[in-house]
TrEMBL record:
Belongs to the glycosyltransferase 47 family. It is found in: Golgi apparatus membrane. Pfam families: Exostosin_GT47. The lineage of its organism: Eukaryota, Viridiplantae, Streptophyta, Embryophyta, Tracheophyta. PANTHER family: EXOSTOSIN HEPARAN SULFATE GLYCOSYLTRANSFERASE -RELATED, XYLOGLUCAN GALACTOSYLTRANSFERASE GT12-RELATED. GO terms for cellular component: Golgi membrane. This is Exostosin GT47 domain-containing protein.
Amino acid sequence: MMKPVPRLRLFISVTFVLCLFVVFQIHKSDLFGKNLQITHQVNNFFISIASSSHHQTQNLTKYSNESDGDRAKQPESEETDTCAGRYIYMHDLPSIYNDDIIKDCRPLIKWFDMCPFMVNSGLGPQVLEHANKTSQVLTTKTGSWYSTNQFLLSVIFRERMKHYECLTNDSSLASAIYIPYYPGFDVSRHLWGYNTTVRDALATKLSRWLRERPEWNKMYGRDHFFVAGRIGWDFRRCSEDSEWGSNLMCLPEFSNTTMLSIETTAWTNEFAVPYPTYFHPKSVTEVRIWQRKVKSVKRRHLFCFVGAPRPTLDGSIRGEIINQCLASHGKCKFLNCNEPGNDCDNPVKIMDVFQRSVFCLQPSGDSYTRRSIFDSILAGCIPVFFHPGSGYKQYMWYFPKDYTKYSVYIPDNGMKNGTVSLRDLLGGIDKESILRMRNEVVKIIPKIIYTKPGLVGPKKIEDAFDIAVDRVIQRVAMVKRMMEEGKDLQGEYSQTRDLKKLE
């Protein structure tokens, strides 16, 4: 926190200068004659100095001891309030629900050290320009590329919320209420070697904490939302017969809240938001430079696959994809993430493969979706989906409704029975269609990135965070109207997406 002595010295210095200028002004007619315009300009100059110094002093004091919600905007008059209908209230949760969870970062995910990725507000280590290869692949001079881990979305989202322009400390003004909880890391640290009681303990405690808050009684949690950081199924252990995941979304309180997850299930209060990518720009200019780059880059491969094989017995089509890729005589680039040294967490290596490919294959992995979907779109590579649940029924806030505009769909049955030749099918798409799809993919890029927390320049980027917040606000407003009209919420606003029936 700023010490009072420097602040006092600053105030005395500015006051002294102003006093000298007042004396100076007494004789302005002798010095300037009738040229009052110059005098007004000088006046304004000194006033701006005083105002700027006072403003900077306030900011330094304000941010020195910051907690969730401290950067809240003060409401203006109704006529000039640009945040009317957009205010978000962020609960000031006890640290056991967020900071304490990630403080002991080593055991967050078994067999994988998450500690290196916790830096830079969850963006991970910055990718530095240290070789020609890096500068050719990434626009590293902007300082906006990071080795971001796919599971850190809840941390990134919270840091962005601290800088949200319509954050308020007055919950009565809020259109929606954000819960800055890290449920993904809460459950992942207890997935192996712990019983379900331990796994569910913190979520159960949080549900009681929320229920006792005055903000809860307004809509009984239907105006609350949080970010999961993992796929939705990891929080749906609603039966004691299952051992996987937590029972978070089966608790009565959380059955009312909205969950934003990197992959949704079939419930009405879950919505999918993009996985974090490696690119976190701070200006519109950076985004446009990158968009121009990926539109003009030379693509030597017709298609590519970045990933690891999966057992065919599990119904995976990856084996067939890999076989066809290896037999394509150079038309396909395969980066095997199971091979030592391939380092599929390396942003430069991943983005290089995607930038040099026309189409990027996105088969299902451990679940329907993959972080690779968004990395490939960021590279301007046209995604190829094999199941509607991988993209079309997931990211409906972000992707065009007409999936043919930006992607290729190949039903996975054709891959399983061997009737589809990827080389022939993708090679048969004309250049005009490819150009049209790539242009649409490039348009999507600003919507699926998470910008760097803090100021993002004079022109705001409507990124994945902004879209999610706006849609949550819209949804809460709709639910509120339905509650006032006494309508059946489950029946009226149901957007069930039964992913098992999408084939």
